[in-house]
Amino acid sequence: MTAVRQDRTDLETSVFSSQERVVALHQVERSDWESSRLSITATLPEKELSSGPWSDVTVMAVLTEKSTNSRTTTLLERESTGSSTWAGQLRFWRSAYRSQAELAVIVVATVDGVRGRVVGRSDDNWLVDLTARTPVRRQELQVEEVDFRDGPHEWLRPYKDAPWMIETSGDIPTVHLNTGFEGIAELLNSNGSSMEKAVRDMLAAQIATDVWTAVFHSAVSDLEVDAEGNPQWPGGWRDAVLRGMLSDVLPEQSGADALREIHARRSESSGWNELQPRINYAATRRAKVARHLGTAVRVLETSQKGSKA
User: Fold this and answer.
1) Which residues contact 217 (CB under 8 A, 6 or more apart)?
2) DSSP at 219
3) Torsion angle, CA of 170/173/179/181, rounded to 10 degrees?
4) Pick from 88, 106, 184, 229: CA 20 to 30 A from residue 126's CA?
5) Residue ranges for the chain with pLDDT beneath 70
6) How far is CA 79 from CA 4, 85, 288, in A?
7) What is the structure's pLDDT at 138?
8) What is the pTM of this model?
9) Residue from 248, 216, 252 nearest 234 by CA
10) What's the alpha-carbon Rg for the chain, to the nearest Å?
11) How far apart are CA 244 and CA 225, in angstroms?
């Protein structure tokens, strides 16, 4: 990102951060802006680009938001003959986006006579945040304490007896903690005796296990495929979830092979059920269930010995 223009106004460079790879557009100049124009440069590996088995190389910047299904693209042009730097401007309309969009660079080419095949993409994408005033990465998991029975979310009311629910349909996964479930919020916020801490950590680990399981299934379900049916890395938090958990779910395969395998099993319903123990293992490993359970057992044993003494 080299510059941002909003409607007819050039914005200060403070609205974007190259280190965080974030653009923050919430009321930077005014709240009623209609469009923003992002000036983008991308440096590609020229040697690899010129020696590959492809032709008609095209470089595009792509801005996407899953919650609105919005997508805006623009072509990047090589700055000069032989240069590895490609540049261009992407203009998008405020009305088409809601909160957070991901900006990626994709390289397409003609391969074996087939046009438009994706041969490369950026690994570390930018985040265009329409709800942030400062360009910093926010947490990739949101926790909300809300009364399921009488709170503002009508869709939670059928689950009034549940201690928590996990929502993965938005731009950021959200754990809804039911304040109507007596004691759960107080327990998670407690910092009392060793026994209370052990129970608190076990509860947090159980919630984390449910979160990892839910986000993994959501990420696999939302995979998109290219023109030849090959699954694509999804970007955003879904990308991080898959890259992290696939190494435990399918440890014998490379990342790309594991992505194809998990997509095939999910879409063809063949071998999907056999993977569930592996998914559960990957989720509990990230939630550190074994460590917290071991601590709880030791605290309980110590407490029992103290009671007998």
Assistant:
1) 279
2) H
3) 110
4) 229
5) 27-30, 138-140, 308-309
6) 19, 6, 49
7) 67
8) 0.60
9) 216
10) 24
11) 20
